[in-house]
Amino acid sequence: MKPVYKVSSHAPLSPRMDYNRTMKNTHLEHLEDTILNNGTAGGYEVVDFLKQFGDLLGGRKSSLSISTKWDGSPAIICGTDPVTGQFFVGTKSVFNKTNPKVCYDDVDIDRYYQAEILRTKLKACLKYLPQLNIKGIIQGDLLFTQGECRVGKIGRREYITFQPNALRYAVDANSVKGKQIISSQVGIVFHTVYKGDTIAGSTAVYNKAPQYNSTGDVWVASSDYSTVSNFDIRNFAKYTAIINRATGSLKRSSNFLNIIQNYGESKFIMAILFKQYFNQKIRAGLELANVRRVASDFAQFYSNKMDEEIAKKKSDKGKAKYKDIKRNGLAFIVKYQTDIYFTVASYLSIRTAKKMVIDQLNKVTDILTFVDGRPSQPEGYVVSYNGTALKFVDDDFRKANITVIKSWAK
Questions:
Q1: Where are the alpha helices (DSSP H) in 89-145?
Q2: d(CA 344, CA 323)
Q3: CA distance 123 to 113
Q4: 321-337 pLDDT, tens digit each
């Protein structure tokens, strides 16, 4: 566990603290959750990201690297094994600490994966992706395999559509992309490069997304976001004000954000519960706007969580233990109610700024997206800066994605 940094209350957000940059890209975090995951260090990180976006969308130079987040599935890890030199494919399970599922041939795929539809997809990747001459190890998301694209009309125009997960994508059938897609056996988008002497020892490198050209059989979608629509003067001023507001509340909650990293027990660490609370609200489509209401609702959420745990315990001793934890936790919430207020204020301000960023980035696109037949925003973006990558994902997608059953899990 990383050490908890002790800072004074209302500590200035200026010196940078270290955080872990060696993880594999098996899970990316939302921007706003960074303050709950990393405490004060996460606050520095978030402010840096938002200021960099202020530069980018204000027409100035920025060090951000932005990739479009396609709603592909499953994740595909592939490339050249650094040890054997053989081409391999697999899902994220190639990085399993025990029984890594690295597939060099169809026999490996049949041995490691049970769902027939997943086997078929991986075999298609194994057959066609070597055409790309991939050097090293990369990660992407599968968009379609043979037979999964459809042709239909939207309005008066003909489109090629495909749906790898929650979103359905539509591309003009008469465009270059449309013609490439309809003739391809596999569609995929790559977003991450790995470096290392072995597959197991490889780590993600967050910089530019890997670039490969499509072939006759493989359509490689671009995840690189290069064309930016800048804020107008009014929205730039609004965005700057939100960042300043977030910075101010982060200063007020700085010490508390570190305290909650270690307060609690096991799955009831307070920072984890705050994260669960926020994500439950977002995925349920409930509004997060009133800071005082959200802060007070958290106490009820905490109480309900502890009551559920108490009800699970069979022995009086077990019940008594969690009743004590509940009583102490509620006392903790009362003690730090002002700090919780500023934590919630920080979280909501960060989300407001993030929404402005996503809306601005969404203004540049040539591919339509739909959820359940209704027009929607794209999934979002992966943004890299100074060795760290975070995801900027649309709330509507988060709500839609939670209800999707993967085709190989049906």
A1: 106-112, 116-128
A2: 26
A3: 11
A4: 999 999 999 999 999 99
* Rounded CA separation 290/345 (Å): 9
Q: Collapsing DSSP states into helix, strand and coil, what is residue 331? A: helix
User: Does one domain contain both 283 and 388?
Assistant: yes
Amino acid 118 reads L
Mean pLDDT computed over every residue of the chain: 88
Coil, strand or helix: which one is 79? strand
Domain boundary among 222, 254, 281: 222
Same domain assignment for residues 200 and 163: yes
> Is residue 149 domain-resident?
yes
Residue 102 has pLDDT above 60, yes or no: yes
Strand partners, 380: 69, 393
* Domain assignment of residue 164, given as a range: 71-222
Are 342 and 272 in a shared domain? Answer: yes
Is 48 in a helix, a strand, or coil? Answer: helix
Instruction: Please indicate, yes or no, if residue 407 is contained in any of the structural domains.
Output: no
With respect to residue 24, please indicate whether it lies within any of the assigned structural domains. Answer: no
Q: Could you give the 3-state DSSP secondary structure of residue 159? A: strand
Q: What are phi and psi of 85, to 5 degrees?
A: 80, 5
Q: Are strands 380-385 and 65-69 parallel, antiparallel or unpaired?
A: antiparallel
* pTM score of the predicted model: 0.77
Tell me the two tokens of residue 150: 């459809």
pLDDT at 366 over 50: yes
Contacts with 234 (C-beta within 8 Å, 6 or more apart), sequence order: none
Q: What is the mean pLDDT of residues 38-66?
A: 94
Tokens 């745990």, residue located: 309
Final residue in a domain of this structure, among 222, 246, 261 = 222
Please, how many CA atoms are within 13 Å of residue 243, restricted to the half-sphere of its CB?
Answer: 22
Judge whether 259 and 366 are in contact, CB under 8 Å: no
Judge residue 380's burial from the number of C-beta atoms within 10 Å of its C-beta, 0-12 exposed, 13-18 middle, 19 or more buried: buried
